[in-house]
Task: structure prediction
Amino acid sequence: MADYGRPSEIGRIATIILGALILLFGVIFLGGGAELAALGGSWYYILCGIVLTASGVLTIKGRLLGAWLFLLAWAGTLLWTIYEVGFDGWGWLPRLFGPTIILVLVLVSLPALRRRDTIRPTIRSAV
Amino acid sequence: MRRISLLAATILGSSLAVAVAHAQMAGHEDRLPGPVSSEAYHADPLNPKFEPPSPSSPQAPGVNAANLPDDPEIDISEVPQMVPQVSTNPAPADWPAYGRTDDQNRYSPLSQITPANVGKLKRAFVYHTGSKPAPGQANKWAAETTPIKVGDSLYTCSALNDIMRIDAATGKEIWRHNSGVKFDSIPYTAACKGVTYFTSSVVPEGQPCHNRIIASTLDMRLMALDAETGKMCEGFGFGGQINLMQGIGESVPGFVSMTTPPPVINGIVVVNHEVLDGQRRWAPSGVIRGYDAETGKFVWAWDVNNPDDHHQPAPGKHYSRGTPNSWAAMTGDNELGLVYVPTGNSAADYYSAMRSDKENAVSSSLVALDVRTGAPRWVFQTVHKDVWDYDIGSQVTKFDYPNADGTKTPALILPTKRGQTFILDRATGKPLPEFPVEERPAPSPGVIPDDSRSPTQPWSVAFPRLGFPDLKESDMWGMSPIDQLFCRIKYRKAAYVGEFTPPHLKKPWIEYPGYNGGSDWGSMAYDPKSGIVIANWNNTPMYDQLVNRAKANKLGLMSVDDPNFTPSSGGAEGNGAMSETPYGIVVTPFWNQYTGMMCNKPPYGMIEAIDIKTKKVLWQKPLGTARANGPWGLPTGLPLNIGTPNNGGSVVTAGGLIFVAAATDNQIRAIDMKTGEVVWSDVLPGGGQANPMTYEVNGKQYVAIMAGGHHFMMTPVSDALVVYALPDDVH
Result:
């Protein structure tokens, strides 16, 4: 264990917290989105919720794919926002402001995730 | 969903700093209407605790607040010919009526303050009315006052109807009349929009009560005071006042109130009153009455369900109950001998099956009454069979419409909560040919048994509508995707088919425009020189649902005159018992109830300029910043012009400026009339939910605003009348 040092331990905890946050969003999107779709509303939240849930789980597990899935969700959300409200600033605020903050966190955590992802087989083989 | 919402909001705490409007709904202090025979009274079979008193029972103690004797009745022929009044053709320096002149156009010819120098405007003085909630008292305050100015004095009233004369240059109080209105007499709101200046036609100049202040009170008295000294006019009523609860029948203090300055037309002072909304089908009457402005003696009544009887009811009788009331400021017309009465709904706003044909003909309408007889000369209806509380809150503005052939038609501007603005011929009540009104299909027959909706509703198709398109799911808003999702679900759960979505029992329905407007009591300003209308309005949908009687009882809803009534039993704005009907009503803003933010996207309030000649919008801007608003009622401090709900109107001046407060950011601002840009603003000591005014004394122009705040708008209450002027070295 001593090999991994303090910085990567902090990175590990940070990516787990970030993953949990994304997972929380994903679960809420799935639950609320299912209710909304059942009421005849938008399917965006269910679809996005699936991607976010997967992203959250994989990020917690230290898989780089989790980050890529979040980027996918964010890009999809951007396209959906343009589709729904065009370039209306008030329309962008709820759809993209919060997710963009998380996007920044995901990008910042990429090195830590990459490190975790590459050492993962080592851990597994060691077990 | 509550936990989810709060959690998500916490997660996204960082986004709080982003401008977000706190969903504050404007305060309309509406009221309900009322008549009826006691046979029509049906007690609640489910629980006797929820039975209001019989409509034929006597008035509770304190309803005749000053224990005044019955007022005698005289014939119109005994009313003297009225001398010309100051408000008919005022000096440029004066502001002698609520909307400045008899036209009520909120236009001042003063031009000392201009877009070029307004940046130097400073507070000249602050006058304190002394009326605000005492410690431990519920906050029901929203003064909504506009002073009037004649000569070198301001005349104004406090929220509890004390009347004051103030030196217009210094703010020094010259006299004060203590009206003795009690807290219990406050209906939905302690408001006093203003007082009336009247010059007697019989008392000679120089004698007491030659010039008078006529004022109405929350506890339903009409008073006349000597403008010079503030002493009650002995020749008016009983020691200077009359009891307006005479003939109203069963009531309790706070059920029926007056909040507007009564107009005097050809010697007749006309009074209307608000009746608290949402209480019971057989609430007190919405009767309109005319009195001799000299003596206070009764001349006529207009009682909707007894249209041919213009007399006072015999002892033990009362005016017809449940009839549409009128709580907005009325406008007089000396030339045509008319008073323009903006009406509301019959009592029990959201259920119309028990209304008479006579009520249906005049509710949510503008009614032109002949001031000699009290009989309607014409009626223009803005909503047919209104079950959306679209009562008319605005005062109408008179103007002369310039026809293409050079002639002029006496006309009026009628703003509505729907955002439809009707331009009518004053003589006939018909829309001007240039401003046609179309009857367009509306959702009908609705879903409530035996209560069908009108198949059509009137639209003023040529005048720009004050409103946005119907709501879509994608218009839902929030701080984050999660509260936006919450509002999307709320949107989809409700019935909504656009404007006039009929009331529902099994699920909520969205009422959009909301009952705060569109245009509410702030009314409109009109510059007769340029033909430009200034209108500020709201964009605040409501979320309503009818509940059956058992559910209403479970919610504890009961009428204000129910012996078991407590302040939690429902009020005018929120949930209402609507006793004596099959249903109660649950009303909230269409908001995220956990964050206090509206579900629809901003802006929530707008101001715009419309050229009445070309019918074009010259400019349109959001009104109000996010500085004092935010989620959970927290101020964001941001100057972002998000457009907040607003209550209170504007002033337009020959100096090319518009002065308006109204928004929930507690600011007064000056707007360049040409561009719509805010060129000056100041933070007030309380909410600026009042119409400002402007005047000149000793060669200096002043701008005054009552920063009384508004309990329902959740703005800070104060007793400060704030008055501005340019420093001496500027002009």
Helices of chain A lie at 5-38, 44-60, 64-85, 89-126. Residues 89-126 of chain A form the longest helix (38 residues). Chain A touches chain B through 27 residues (CB under 8 Å). Residues 16-119 of chain A form one domain.
